Please model this.
Amino acid sequence: MSMVLYNFTLTIWIILSAVIFVFLLFIPAPYGRHVQSGWGPIINNKLGWIIMELWSPVIMFLCFLSGVAPISITSIILLILWEAHYLHRAFIYPFSIKTSNRSMPFSVVLSGIFFNFVNASLNGYYIFNLSGGYPQSWLSDPRFIVGVSIFAMGFIINRHSDYILSHLRQPGESGYKIPYGGLFNAVSCPNYLGEILIWCGWAIATWSLAGLSFAIWTIANLAPRARAHYRWYHENFPDYPAKRKILLPGIW
Model:
């Protein structure tokens, strides 16, 4: 792929994220607590997550194997960060979902496959082909240090929040509850905040437009969903903590 074609694709991709952001402000993606009929055939929730997410680690690894840019410790660390998140998301997170009777529309799965295919391709192709290689000296660059630190902070917040959510229900329970503990005491969706921090950190650490596009897409997808979650909690739980914000502690 030429740089011109790559940049054109990346530009269209970022514009599409703005369209999706506006759409999701009015219509939450129909999975989880917002699932609804009318979106086509359904699939088991756990299986849907696996099918959606496995593309990202596979495509990134293929980009690593087929790349022409020099391989360095830095690029290997970037690969490990990506794989650590997505191998967990594809093969560990789905089995932390306690309810076995949940489902999602297959149309959501297809959209997830499309996103992960394009997003992993854009990031992987840049890192292992177009970047020219990340030298070992990049390890001491402030952008890399700050970016990886934000990535790690987001990773911890995201995993801890998912842990709290996965332990809300007792065996046999299927209903929703108000989560407490960790950043749930400050915001409704710290798991989404963690995910946003992960990919903002990635954008800084890679210092690339591909990384930036991923951060933009993450915000475009999760900020409206966090807002929808916040409203859902208030509609369904009269005792929902009034001081708890949507996504940013003390701000929004």
Notes: The mean pLDDT is 93.
